[in-house]
Request: fold
Amino acid sequence: MTAPDVRHALGSTLADADILTEIEDLIPYGFDGTATLKERPLAVVFPRSTKQVSAVVKWAREARVPVVSRGNGTGLSGGSVPVAGGLVLCLNHLDRIVELDRANLTIRAQAGVVTQDIFAAADAAGLFYPPDPGSMKISTIGGNVAENSGGLRGLKYGVTRDYVLGMEVVLADGSICRLGTACVKDVAGYSLRDLFIGSEGTLGIVTEVLLKLLPRPTARRTLLATFAAMDEAAATVSAIIAAGIVPCTLEFLDRRTIQCVEDFAHVGLPTDAEAVLLIEADGHPAAVDDEVAHIEKLCREHAATTVRVAADAAEATRLATARRSAFSALARLRPTTILEDVTVPRSELAAMIRDVEAIALKHDVQIATFGHFGDGNLHPTILTDERDTAEMHRVEAAITAIVEAALARGGTITGEHGVGLAKKPFLRRQLGDASYSLLQLVKRSFDPDGLLNPGKIFDLPA
Amino acid sequence: MTAPDVRHALGSTLADADILTEIEDLIPYGFDGTATLKERPLAVVFPRSTKQVSAVVKWAREARVPVVSRGNGTGLSGGSVPVAGGLVLCLNHLDRIVELDRANLTIRAQAGVVTQDIFAAADAAGLFYPPDPGSMKISTIGGNVAENSGGLRGLKYGVTRDYVLGMEVVLADGSICRLGTACVKDVAGYSLRDLFIGSEGTLGIVTEVLLKLLPRPTARRTLLATFAAMDEAAATVSAIIAAGIVPCTLEFLDRRTIQCVEDFAHVGLPTDAEAVLLIEADGHPAAVDDEVAHIEKLCREHAATTVRVAADAAEATRLATARRSAFSALARLRPTTILEDVTVPRSELAAMIRDVEAIALKHDVQIATFGHFGDGNLHPTILTDERDTAEMHRVEAAITAIVEAALARGGTITGEHGVGLAKKPFLRRQLGDASYSLLQLVKRSFDPDGLLNPGKIFDLPA
Reply:
């Protein structure tokens, strides 16, 4: 199979401009947001309807060509890297918000709609779409569903899964199928919808989603506290939870991240602090005021060196920038930035952060850590240079050690970035043989020819 | 295979008293809470550990004996009726709350723990387990997970699925496997946990669950409004949602239910009302006060004939009794009570209630309707007599008409009771051929011998 073969075969299905086959056009579709992973596809296609997706998949099946679906390629586990070559099926022309239903608090959108646009459409109607992955200004909702993306509001509002009511998917044989309904309660058969959420394009291709919305919280306040000792920050988080408070976000930056962010964004962070907590409360104004006052008191009781409550929305945005810019700030330091994504039960988080520090020392690699303290989701960020082979070996050893530490603490190898290629070597260890085999069984049932995003999550025995 | 064969074969695995084989002992395990469905099992076994469950399943597989798992048999779709004979595996001796983890807001419990005990254990720790199926004082958490049970708090708090972080299951080959972790965020592989939730014992047997808890809301207030016209009640609900208010419960009773409940529980309901809304708000005290005041105003603007806000907890309980006793009150009227469970998008609810009234008239059957107005989940309750063959034919026609009306309105054949036997004839119509075949494919993959709760949800082609 050659690129001209693909153009010839799909020319009657897709417009000429919706098929890319020139090498220079293919390069951008060979990688995603994950460092060091690249492959070149045979061709890239841009269907403009579910029917076209179906036709492409049917053809690919007959021609036995792998199909990797993707949106805007912001993934952080290599999920859309076309490791087996074949077609990249890019859904970003399926970019229509189909319906916002105010009576039923739902929004229906095609897979290629940018997450931020879902949020904005809901917001304009006085409603709220909570999942806010770091990439939401670029990432598409189809990608979010494929990865079950999280974000900063996970503690209070959950993740993408918690907002997907229904979806349209194209199966491996090209058939089109609707899963779920507009009903909040629906127990008619196994929840295949939930099976597809987080399946990383390996079971089918999600072309449209129906999402649940919430009323927009009427108030929101932001607070930033700095600590000279990380254990005090951790104790503060425990005290907040013990007080029955569930903040909308509860984020953490370590010393290296603080220094970097300050250097980059000039937020006014004390660069000698060992930990920063960024906390947002939202809801009814009186509830938010009480929560913020209570949180401020708890921070001070746990030896916070400074506590700043944003006076207005502008200051809140400035404080939130400290966290939102962490990755960009860190990425400036070294040529290669590897964003880890382990998660542990909340009570293990302080110990896990110390594990990461010890691992960085032991393997002589630079690691800055930030993440979602409230839901135990850490992003140890390794600053390195992929051209330095010796250092990359140490980086690999450090990543393995981080993942093993998370597993030893009852955690998961990936909280929100997915398995893709990056976490494939560790999955069996987390799941155990019985569950791991079940995953493979599901894959074989749904995609018997193994053509949908092959080589991701796990390898299949021949 | 005879009952003595079973006793002989499992005698080394289970205590003698944990195997029932006498006909009079088997009868109670031949039915659940669903009217008119009964079968007799070959034997009933009561394992006391996951290992014993595994041993029983392994033996059953070798002996090719069907296994129907169940808890306390409160199901409302016939899910635990042993239609193919074989073993009933009753999990109610697995009744231990293993751990309540305050730091991580989780509770780990064996499958046979009664739902109310989960709620009470959380409550005693200042925490909150929201799912509250009508049967929660008797039903077990394993059954709730198997059916993905809902309840009265679904609008604000979701259903059982939204609280299951992890589980231990025994698969069809007897292997024991853990799904999910204690992490709120976990995207390591397909969510098999979600596939098992609501799978009605057909894919494996859930032996232990790890549940998420919330902080207990600090305030709760209850309000009861009566309406002379059902449309006004529906308009009130729409206005509440449009105002950005999500009450904890938002329940509805129709005229016949009101009359019955008043006759039974003497709550002081006006028996000439056409609709009653029972509304509970919970959360921060100031938020609750604002919500209740706003809701009261909206009720009055939409021509409520009376609005009663409970002055204290005792009065709130009395008002809530009106809704909680609906089923028991109705069940006194005729020998057989069939509780339907269709759900439609919220905006279709008033029309759906009128559909049900027209269907009752057309088929000359008595139907009283109550349910969860907030999440579109209706329980049209058919009052009949299963000994009257002619009437039962009319009842069957009415049920079919109700289910078809729900589907025509974009709804589901079951909101919270499951498919089991009762909804099996309608499932394919809701899902369409492609999804329906996928369900069968999943079943065949997980249970190739078809021995786990056979004949439920769908039939398999030979």
